[in-house]
Design goal:
The protein is of the alpha+beta class and 197 residues long. Helix content is 23%, strand content 33%. It has a single domain, classed as Pnp Oxidase, Chain A (Roll), CATH 2.30.110. Strand 1 and strand 2 form a beta hairpin.
């Protein structure tokens, strides 16, 4: 009986492995290094040559805010009340003169006045701004994308220099606040997968 069970299990594992390999051959897999971004401020877009230096990019998550319904007898149900989004981060490789840093410090200067220390209106620095993140296939074609709306650079991280770092390049970490994100409608072969209903 045990030998028969082992044979059946082995056959099922082989079938599952073959199905996995067949799907990989047919559809491949999403590579982490296949992406591109586009950043738009209320005053215009970030230069495309600069966005090519985005070393790491996050597609942000989302959280359902819920609370227990304790008005009824029995175990409480957890009920959704809202949607929440945390910040997202992009790391840029810096070029000489650090125009990447200047781009975001200039944007932050349009958020808070450094003379009066008063914040400008939200519509002036966030409304109309967006970040688009695209996942590409092996042929560098857009297959998935999200757009982050009402974006602004919340935190520009400090940058360290070290005399012993001969061949290391400088990077810039930027944390972005945003209101919400939506998936794009792309016409690639995978555009309909994952939809409900």
């Amino acid at each position: 009986m045990l030998i028969k069970c082992i044979k059946i299990l082995g056959k099922r594992l082989t079938m599952a492995l073959n199905a996995f390999i067949a799907r990989l051959k047919k559809e491949s897999y999403q590579r982490q290094n296949k992406y591109r971004i586009s950043i738009h401020t209320p005053w215009g877009g970030m230069d495309q040559d600069m966005t090519l230096f985005a070393e790491t990019v996050e597609i942000p998550g989302q959280t359902i805010i819920s609370s227990p319904d304790e008005l009824r007898y029995g175990p409480p149900r957890e009920q959704a009340t809202a949607m929440s989004y945390g910040p997202t981060n992009i790391t840029f490789i810096c070029t000489p003169g650090m125009p990447e840093r200047k781009f975001f410090t200039n944007w932050q200067d349009m958020i808070v006045n450094k003379n009066s220390w008063e914040a400008y209106y939200y519509e002036e620095y966030a409304a109309g701004s967006s970040i688009m993140v695209y996942a590409l296939d092996a042929q560098e074609k857009d297959q998935y994308g999200v757009t982050l709306y009402e974006v602004f650079p919340k935190t520009i991280s400090g940058q360290s220099f070290a005399a012993g770092s001969n061949d290391s390049y400088q990077t810039l970490d930027v944390e972005f606040a945003f209101r919400y994100w939506k998936e794009m409608s792309l016409s690639g072969p995978y555009s309909s997968s994952g939809q409900i209903g």
